[in-house]
Design a protein that fits this description.
The complex is a heterodimer of chains A (about 240) and B (about 250).
Chain A: E1 2-11, E2 14-16, H1 18-28, E3 32-39, H2 40-43, H3 46-54, E4 60-65, H4 72-83, E5 88-91, H5 93-96, H6 106-115, E6 119-122, H7 131-140, E7 146-149, H8 160-166, E8 170-173, H9 179-189, E9 194-195, H10 205-214, H11 219-233
Parallel strand pairs in A: 1-3, 3-4, 4-5, 5-6, 6-7, 7-8, 8-9
Antiparallel strand pairs in A: 1-2
Helix pairs in contact in A: 4-6, 7-8, 8-9
Chain B: E1 4-9, E2 13-14, E3 17-18, H1 22-32, E4 36-40, H2 49-60, E5 67-71, H3 79-89, E6 96-99, H4 101-104, H5 112-124, E7 129-131, H6 141-150, E8 156-158, H7 167-176, E9 180-184, H8 189-199, E10 204-206, H9 215-226, H10 232-246
Parallel strand pairs in B: 1-4, 4-5, 5-6, 6-7, 7-8, 8-9, 9-10
Antiparallel strand pairs in B: 2-3
The chains are: A alpha/beta (about 240), B alpha/beta (about 250).
Chain lengths: ~240, ~250
């Protein structure tokens, strides 16, 4: 299994380091995790945050983050992260303070597209993290995969099905989504649009995996959600379910 | 361990979507070991509130030992809303009050006079008042916590204890406002640990938000609670003891 969304670092009341994430992965039978920084490492201290996820070892692969307001320095940091093996870009418009559609974000998104990276953005808080704003930029970069981090949790969940209909390159990170919401996306858009994620340390592997198992997906859909989609989107090897 | 679900919905439909009857809710509770569930309307948040209060009472009384109805009123009606609350609370079966300001289209501060009157009735009758929280523009966690300060004698619940983006403010407000309580309903195990570490286990009550058509949601919300790794004492407080202590005393 591949976890498409774990978090490393220290943010307000959440903290997780690589050793503890690996312990939780082993306990849950998860082979690989894609992690992104949280807290100061995500909002302002990108070099430290990116190093944390990019140097966590072979079973943890990193999403690089930069604050788009850094301008050219943000692009330099993305180049450094590419050299360190980043598998995608993570942005948090609410914490980092920009609309996804705002021109300040465009160079960062264009650079991710140039690198062939998927782009995950945390969605769900209103204003900056509006899931429909993510769908807008997904339409602007049709060759890039965008992932709705947290799937609009909590009160933008009802926007997700139509947003995904209107942006075929938009996928759901199921890490904070309830089972019926996951099922709705599978039914309407296919299992190929859903990524299993843990949101560790906020959520727990056991919670997400049991929610997925209760849906009774057929084997190919289950495999797509738990492994194949992430392997394709993040260009990962291994992580058999 | 005994479980009381403090936050669920019982109605015949939500918007255009039919909802199965109460027997399905009780079957889900049996399946997952839930002893009692507090039930709220869905359609009564939009229209015909008195009629929906009566319907909720009727539906819940098919399983009187298992389902505990909460009344809602439309505070935009002013004194008529207070009258409707008094009418419903004459029935001992109603053991709580529920508001969903986002769906009911009001900010409490727009209706201060009526909300104060409602909270005073709640305080006089020892009835908890639960508000949806975590959603702008009418149901932010700060809005609900502010309202709790208006009538310190009333027991006011954050219906989702911060939900997605307000968990840390919720934890601090639950700690700082004596008559503010939290229903852990929808947020995640890491959030629950923080809520309890900050505000204390006595301030947090389990809720699922499930309806008779979604037993899986009840299972998921129980997983959310169990996987937080609480001490047995804290888990017991969250799963039932706080709810039992806080509900309007039953005449049964």
């Amino acid at each position: 299994m591949i976890d498409a969304h774990a978090m490393l670092g220290d943010e307000t009341y959440l903290r997780l380091d690589a050793d503890e994430l690996l312990r939780r992965m082993d306990a849950a039978g998860v082979d690989l995790a894609v992690a992104r920084p949280m807290g100061a490492g995500m909002v302002v201290d990108h070099r430290a945050g990116n190093d944390l996820v990019l140097k966590a070892g072979p079973r943890i692969r990193g999403l690089a983050t930069v604050n788009p307001w850094w301008g050219p320095k943000a692009l330099d940091e993305l180049a450094r992260c590419r050299d360190l093996g980043a598998v995608g870009l993570f942005l948090d418009p609410a914490r980092q303070g920009f609309f996804p559609t705002e021109p300040v974000a465009t160079p960062v998104l264009a650079r991710a597209a140039e690198y062939g990276w998927p782009v995950m953005m945390k969605t769900g808080a209103y204003v900056y993290a509006d899931i429909l704003a993510l769908a807008e930029v997904a339409r602007d970069f049709p060759g890039t995969t965008f992932v709705a981090g947290f799937g609009g949790f909590a009160d933008q969940w009802f926007e997700l099905p139509m947003a995904m209909r209107n942006a075929p390159n938009l996928m759901l990170d199921a890490s904070m989504m309830w089972g019926a919401g996951i099922q709705q996306i599978v039914d309407r858009h296919g299992a190929g649009r859903v990524l299993f994620g843990s949101a560790e340390p906020r959520n727990r592997y056991a919670v997400v995996l049991k929610a997925i198992e209760r849906r009774g997906l057929d084997e190919s859909s289950r495999r797509a959600v738990l492994h194949d989609n992430a392997a394709r989107v993040f260009k990962l090897e291994g992580g058999r379910p | 361990m005994r479980i009381i679900d403090f936050h669920a919905h019982l109605d015949e439909r939500w918007l255009h979507k039919p909802i199965p009857d109460a027997s399905h809710m009780v079957a889900a509770m049996d399946r997952l070991g839930v002893a009692q569930t507090c039930v709220y309307t869905m359609m009564g948040f939009y229209a015909e509130t008195p009629r929906n209060n009566d319907l909720l009472l009727e539906r819940s009384q098919r399983h009187p030992d298992r389902l505990i109805p909460f009344v809602t009123v439309d505070p935009k009606e002013g004194p008529a809303a207070v009258d409707e609350l008094e009418r419903c609370l004459e029935r001992p079966e109603f053991r709580g009050i529920k508001f969903h300001p986002w769906l009911q289209a009001f900010a409490p501060s727009m209706l201060e006079e009526t909300m104060v009157a409602i909270l005073k009735v709640a305080a006089r009758t020892d009835t908890p008042v639960l508000f949806h929280d975590g959603t702008p523009p009418y149901s932010t966690t700060f809005q609900i916590a502010d309202l709790a300060r208006w009538v310190p004698e009333a027991k006011v619940f954050l219906g989702h204890a911060g939900l997605a983006d307000y968990v840390d403010p919720a934890a601090r407000l639950l700690r700082d406002v004596p008559n503010l309580y939290g229903c852990y309903c929808g947020s995640r195990p890491g959030d629950l640990v923080h809520l309890i570490e900050t505000a204390g286990a006595d301030k947090i009550t389990f809720g699922s938000d499930f309806d008779p058509g979604s037993w899986e949601l009840l299972a998921e919300r129980l997983d959310n609670t169990i996987e937080a790794g609480l001490s047995p004492e804290d888990l017991e407080a969250v799963l039932w003891r706080n709810a039992e202590r806080t509900l309007r005393p039953s005449s049964r």
